[in-house]
Amino acid sequence: MLHHIKRLEMAPGLRVRVMSPTLCCAVIAACGDGSAQRSMIDVPSSGSVAPSDPLAPDGSAPTSPAQECAEGFSMNDADAQQLFDYAHVPTFDFFLPEDDWASLQQNARDEQYALARACFDGQLIGDVGLRFKGYYGSLYGCFDENDELICPRLSMKVKFSEYDEEQRFFGLKRLNFNAYRHDDSRMKERLSYDLFRAMGIVTPRAAWAVLRVNGQSYGLYGMVEQIDGRFTADRWPGTPDGNLYKEVWPSDADESSLLAALKTNEESMDVSGYEGFAVTLREAAEEERLQVLDQYMDLDYLARYLAVDDAVANYDGITYFWTDGASHTNHNFYIFEQAPDSFVLIPWDVEATFWINPDHAAPPWSVLPEDCSETYPYWDGLALAPGCDPVFKALDTDLDRWREAARQLLDGPFALDAMRAAIDRHAAFIMNEALADPTPPMYASFDAAVAELQRVVPRLRERLEMLVGDD
Description:
alpha+beta, 7-stranded mixed barrel, 4-stranded antiparallel sheet
């Protein structure tokens, strides 16, 4: 019994649902003939049928209609930069039994890996772990009250070392494929990361790829480098083994939250360095907190980070504190502990950028409100004023670095001509794949989304000019 997603020409408000179960034979697809690399999936070695054929002529499960994958060059030790600088948009194929694929979709929120055979532009990679990924807006929000899938596709994560610890892909253990549910241009994340990188911020690499599962195209995805131990070893070759934490903020960090957020060195579980930073910050008098922050984090780096975050209007980053009344949290960042007195902020998941939402009424981080208990509407929830957080309250006592960084950004990588050229360049690179994407757009066509990007940049520049002009 399988669940299939049926793609529809969607009128406004019409949702794509998982259809009722239908009987189908499991389809197992082959990448190559299996002679050079033995797969954990038992796949036929030859032959193909159309995707609508339930059985091959001899009654066996058909192979994928996609081109069979062949042994090619070794991709284990290739430089990851080659992948993100690829001359065209590559295609990834994933093959797994149809009942496994249906189960993976049905249980997407569990974020458990399933065994799949992977190919890259027609060349065999091997057996990998494939799962869905995301958070409220990109995963949990894709299921309705009846637990039916209502999104035409979901973001995915691939773990190349899941079944073979030594297997790598362009030197990587993992790779993310973002569905960009809220970005029909597919460019906001790449543009944001490019700006962070241009301002000297340690940033994951990003490009694009087409994804197919058992021969069916799910369209154009963002391809984003995983922030993990291999990432830190590449960016900090002199101190590659430091602790990496996901989404634990200095003003809120304690031992339990740090242990839960630790993404490297899980065997040693020593979080005393970050814990010491957090305790020192919290216990310092308000007039001393900027000095404490300077002892543990590079204030110039923070200024450049915030200048970019403000420029792109990042609505789901470090300056937005969700609250349920009892607790609060900000999202989409990593912190690397280069040394016990040196912590570096890394941006993550920057799709919610390059738009101005007047309904998000929280003041900017550089403004301290009179009442820090006040909450502000924020999508379907509430947010607190970021200026009340001890980190931002400390930074607010000296805004000169941030203003200087913002002006450098406005005159350099965020200049109007530079941004228009970047948008045009990326649009030309992905245009064919974007126009051929079989999944329905969320808001507008690709061309309309690109045009809107061009229109919003001058408004974002005006917004940043207004922010830094405040005294």
